[in-house]
Amino acid sequence: MISIAHIDKTSAPRVQDARSLHSRDHCSTCSLHSLCLPTGLCESEMNRLDKIIGRRRKVLKDEALYRMDDPFTTLYAVRLGHFKTHQVTPAGDEQITGFHMAGELLGMDAISTDRHHCYAVALEDSEVCEIPFAQLEQLFAEMPTLLRHFHRLMSQEITRDQNTMLLLGNMRAEQRFAAFLVNLSSRYKVRGYSPTSFQLRMSREDIGNYLGLTIESISRLLARFKKQALLKVSNREIELLDLPMLKQLAMQGNTAH
Amino acid sequence: MISIAHIDKTSAPRVQDARSLHSRDHCSTCSLHSLCLPTGLCESEMNRLDKIIGRRRKVLKDEALYRMDDPFTTLYAVRLGHFKTHQVTPAGDEQITGFHMAGELLGMDAISTDRHHCYAVALEDSEVCEIPFAQLEQLFAEMPTLLRHFHRLMSQEITRDQNTMLLLGNMRAEQRFAAFLVNLSSRYKVRGYSPTSFQLRMSREDIGNYLGLTIESISRLLARFKKQALLKVSNREIELLDLPMLKQLAMQGNTAH
DNA sequence: CGATGTCTTGAAGTGGTTCAAGTCACGTGG
DNA sequence: CCACGTGACTTGAACCACTTCAAGACATCG
């Protein structure tokens, strides 16, 4: 485990120098490049993309990567750690719109208005690659593969959000939570982690907020699933014991409406 | 009123000829070009975009413009009429993900997988412009303004969906329905129609499905709003009598969670 | 070793659903 | 033109899934 919890803020310029000199990783050597923006690029194209990626930035747990209404200049690729994005209404209600893990792009919702439409907050000490959008746009003109993949990523974000709408509009509590777990599972799987054994990076409250349920409901659902031997849970450590059954539950029809 | 309800299907090729010869409208003369894809383009750019727009297509009420899992080749701009988009789960549950009116782009969710992710069905006899995506991509390389606006439209779709997530995850029935009405109102307003007096193009059932409520709830909410003199309603004809109050209701905080 | 925040569990309450009858609007055919 | 049928909507009453409220257990950390 590498600790990135304590950063000497007084030495920021020096650290940046160090990064540009040697410690900076490249898209081509990044283990996430098959999920992230560089997907499908050749070596030389990846290097060009590399050049515009300003710097990596560390974001401590509970720190905001950006805030709602901040002016938009750059996209972020999660390199390490986890984030949540959430909106806040004028009345102060919060809605978490997504949880984001390594290889995912943050900030695409800001393109339409040049201002961020939500908050992005680190769920643990995390790290992102900054991708200045204006420079990325320049590359688009010359790298159709990059552009095409960027469109795929935006489109993916749309379908993801629409799936969540389906979850919130149509599913019962049990289905929602099962779908949530199955979703996490498959995302860890494509990243090479165990699809059945992982840590919940977010609080019960975050889960409840995301799923349109209360924290108590989440707690009860966990207890119920545990009793049904669908999973083991200890604090935020989860082991899915019956993934097929959870998938079944997640797909199950809804008698309502 | 122009009736497009009866189309002689046997004469399809002849009709297409006729279109390409004279009856075809152009982006530059279209009243929607400030909302739609050509936004911000100069005359000559608009003409180039015009050239790739294959044809206009009529879609009768309740007909599908495309179906879930159809292969994706073209985007559609709504030219006339209204559409709904909805997903269907394996279990047969439906979730309407949006209602779409003139000037809006349909099909962007299909880019990520090259297959449509939802159904698009006309709520009344309607008309769309077909925009072959492969050709559009070619234009992107040469028309940065077009590309930029396309990104704005995709980003807009993301923020729209996220707003709906907030609605479904956080709001009470009354707020949801008020927000729905206010949303329609403002969309008609930017199109130059009355923001207070319009027809609901969708059934109560569609509204309920979209808002995650039952048809009975919608009916009761309409009755309540009517009693509170917030609106008049007769069948699908709506008149909003107190738009400020409806906005107030839509923004109101939620005690839940 | 308290103090604080996170989570669990139980009991009571309720907003919206479900179920069941209507009513209304509209098209169709006699 | 009316009778009829059908689909869309309304309204009432009973119900229930999830919330709310409340109390306590547990984990983490200065």
Automatic annotation (TrEMBL), chains A, B:
Keywords: DNA-binding, Transcription, Transcription regulation. One of its GO terms (cellular component) is cytosol. InterPro entries: cNMP-bd_dom, cNMP-bd_dom_sf, Env_Response_Regulators, HTH_CRP, RmlC-like_jellyroll, Tscrpt_reg_HTH_Crp-type_CS, WH-like_DNA-bd_sf, WH_DNA-bd_sf. The keyword Transmembrane does not apply. GO terms for molecular function: DNA binding; DNA-binding transcription factor activity. Residues 171-244 form the HTH crp-type domain. It holds the Pfam family HTH_Crp_2. The keyword Transcription regulation applies. It comes from the Bacteria. PANTHER family: CRP FAMILY TRANSCRIPTIONAL REGULATORY PROTEIN, FUMARATE AND NITRATE REDUCTION REGULATORY PROTEIN. This is CRP/FNR family transcriptional regulator, anaerobic regulatory protein. It comes from Noviherbaspirillum humi.
